[in-house]
Amino acid sequence: MKLHRFIGDYDLTKKEIEILDPKIIKQIKGILRLEKDEKIILSNGLGENAEVTLNLISTNKISGTIDKIEKKNKTKRRVSLYLAILKKENFELAVQKAVEAGVSEITPVITERTIKTGLNIDRLKKIILEASEQSGRSFVPTLSPILKFKDAIAAGNDKDEKVIFHLENDFYSPNKEAKNVSIFIGPEGGFTANEIDWATNSGYSVFSLGSLTLRAETAAIIATYRVVKGI
User: Fold this and answer.
1) Are 204 and 78 in contact (CB under 8 A)?
2) What is the tens place of the pLDDT at every residue in 103-138?
């Protein structure tokens, strides 16, 4: 049976652990209706997971006993997604699914064709955390500060593989030996010719995801999954 997972700033070094966050208490007590002696997973988001048996569930506090600790290593293939800022709901969807697909880092990017530049950072961090919990991740992906396109190109330039996805180019074939990969997804109108030139002159490869024209959020999800899996 899959156990419910909660990621937070938990001290997993002690045998007994307390949960004082009202949101988590509400979820465990009011929404999931978990009871004494049931088990959950608590993760510190840094690779450590604890299986916990609940022994007290009250309005203001939940406590439990740590039964065992599992330590995970970071994935061998780390993918950094540089995603042009989209309309609110589209950007949030892309972020959520990219986390579920295994992305390690997400950087919002302002491109020449970016229309909206404002983001609710706190909401995005919440989406990333909840998607990490839902998908059973032990490490929470990083949400980096918003960058302009040229600055983002420079930031991603130290990776083993650097890809900017653009229609009407060769179909993407992954470098399976690459341990760190930067991928760029453009806005609704795509990247401009100047941006593509800048990327290629900076050492990036330009590939497509196929002959079909994808929505930006769809491209972000598919590209992340393919690069993470190396397929």
Assistant:
1) no
2) 999 999 999 999 888 899 999 999 999 999 999 899
Q: What is the mean pLDDT of residues 15-32?
A: 90
What pLDDT shows up at residue 11? 85
Q: Which of 31, 54, 71 is the last residue of a domain?
A: 71
Distance of alpha carbon 29 from alpha carbon 107, whole angstroms: 35
Q: Is the dihedral of CA 144, 138, 182, 231 positive or negative?
A: negative
Which CATH number fits the domain that encloses residue 123? 3.40.1280.10
Using DSSP bridges, classify how beta strands 39-43 and 5-7 pair: parallel, antiparallel or unpaired. parallel
pTM (2 d.p.): 0.88
* 60 and 106 assigned to the same domain: no
Domain that holds residue 14: 5-71
Provide the pairing of β-strand 48-57 with 62-71. Answer: antiparallel
